[in-house]
Amino acid sequence: MGISILGAGCCLPQQEVDNHAFESFIETSDEWITTRTGIHCRRISDGILTYQMGAEAARQALKDADTAPEEIDMVLATTVTADTTTPSLACLAAAEVGIKTAPCMDLNAACTGFVYALDVAEKYLSTGSAKKILILSAEMMSRIVNFKDRSSCVLFGDGAAAVVVGPSDKMYHSWLACNLDGRYKIFSKATNSENPFRKKDFDWPEEVAEMQPGLMEMAGNEVYRFATQAMPEAVQRCCEKAGFTPEQLDRIIPHQANLRIIRTALKHLGLPEEKVHINIQHYGNISSACIPLSLCEMKRAGELHPGDKICLVGFGSGLTYGAAVLEW
C-alpha cells in the first residue's frame, strides 16, 4: 500500500520583498545575500494570516483533486507560526474551506513538517482509517524572524501549500529521524506568562536563557554542517528501504533553506542538479511549506510523470530530518 497525491494548491502573499529592501535597516547587500544563500526575493505577509493562506492553498488542492470538502476524512496541518495557540491551524483552515466534521490536528516538526505529515497520512490511509486526507502547510516566518539579525532575517519568507492524498498501490517508503543534541540550535521561546502567582524567572537551560521570547535564533554554521550531512543521509536511508539507489531517483524535492546546502548534499550523493527542483531564489525558506509548494509548482508545470520516483527530503528545528520516496 502506498499513497497518491490527488491534487495540490498553494498561496503566497502578494507583497514581494527583494534583497535590496533589507539594505535600509540592516548592514547587508543583494550580493552578500545572493552569494551565501541563493535567495533573490521572498513573499512577506502584509496582513493575510497563516490560516488564511492555508485555507486558500487547501481550496486549490481540493479543486485540483476534484474533491468536495465532505470527502475529506482528516486534516493535517504543519506550522511553526500558527496565528493562535488554540484552536489549531488545521481547525481554522478546514472551517474556511467548508469541512465540517473531519478530525483536524497540527503537527510541528519545523521545516521537516510536511514529510512527517505525509508519513502520518500514509499510516491512516494504509489501514483504511481514511480514504482522503488534506495536508496543508502554512507559515508566516516573518512573525518570528528577528529583523535585527542580518544573518537570519534575510533567509525566510511566508506562504502556504496543500495536497490531497489518497491510498494507492504505488510505491512509498519513508525514513524519519531527529538529532536531539541539536535541539537548541534553532529555537524560539513562547512569550512569558504574566500570571500573578509567578515570582521567579523561568528556569531555562543556559543555552537559551538569554534568548528573547517570541523571536527565533539560529546557530547558522552548526545548522549548515548538520544539514549538509542530514539531507544525503535521509535520501540514502530512504532509498535503501525502497530497494534502489539515489541514482535511480527521477526527481528530488528538497527543503529550500540554502542553495549551498542543496548543492553540497547533491555532491555527497553524486547526483546532478538537473534532478532537483529549486525555487529558493523566488521564495526563500518557508519552513514546512517549501516542499509542498515545490510539488504544486512541478505538478502545474507538468514536470512530474507517471512512474517517476520522487524523493522529498527535509531538515529543521529539533533537529528533525527525514525523507519520503514515492511513485508519481
UniProtKB/TrEMBL annotation:
Q: Name all Beta-ketoacyl-[acyl-carrier-protein] synthase III N-terminal domain ranges.
A: 105-179
Query: Which GO terms are recorded in the biological process aspect for this UniProt protein?
Result: fatty acid biosynthetic process; secondary metabolite biosynthetic process
Its localization reads: Cytoplasm
The UniProt entry, under Pfam families, shows: ACP_syn_III, ACP_syn_III_C
Domain Beta-ketoacyl-[acyl-carrier-protein] synthase III C-terminal as annotated: residue spans: 239-328
* A GO cellular component annotation in the UniProt record: cytoplasm
Please provide the record's keywords in A-Z order. Acyltransferase, Cytoplasm, Fatty acid biosynthesis, Fatty acid metabolism, Lipid biosynthesis, Lipid metabolism, Multifunctional enzyme, Transferase
The reactions it catalyses are: malonyl-[ACP] + acetyl-CoA + H(+) = 3-oxobutanoyl-[ACP] + CO2 + CoA
EC numbers: 2.3.1.180
Its annotated pathway reads: Lipid metabolism; fatty acid biosynthesis
Q: Give the source's domain of life in one word.
A: Bacteria
What positions does UniProt annotate as the active site of this protein? Answer: C111, H255, N285
> Could you tell me which InterPro entries the record lists for this protein?
ACP_syn_III_C (IPR013747), ACP_syn_III_N (IPR013751), FabH (IPR004655), Thiolase-like (IPR016039)
Q: Where is this region: ACP-binding?
A: 256-260
Whether RNA-binding counts among this entry's keywords is no
Q: Name one GO molecular function term.
A: beta-ketoacyl-acyl-carrier-protein synthase III activity
Entry domain remark: The last Arg residue of the ACP-binding site is essential for the weak association between ACP/AcpP and FabH.
- What does the function comment of this entry state? Catalyzes the condensation reaction of fatty acid synthesis by the addition to an acyl acceptor of two carbons from malonyl-ACP. Catalyzes the first condensation reaction which initiates fatty acid synthesis and may therefore play a role in governing the total rate of fatty acid production. Possesses both acetoacetyl-ACP synthase and acetyl transacylase activities. Its substrate specificity determines the biosynthesis of branched-chain and/or straight-chain of fatty acids.
* Subunit structure of this chain's protein: Homodimer.
The protein here is known as: Beta-ketoacyl-[acyl-carrier-protein] synthase III
Q: Which species is this UniProt entry from?
A: Candidatus Egerieicola faecale
Underlying gene:
fabH
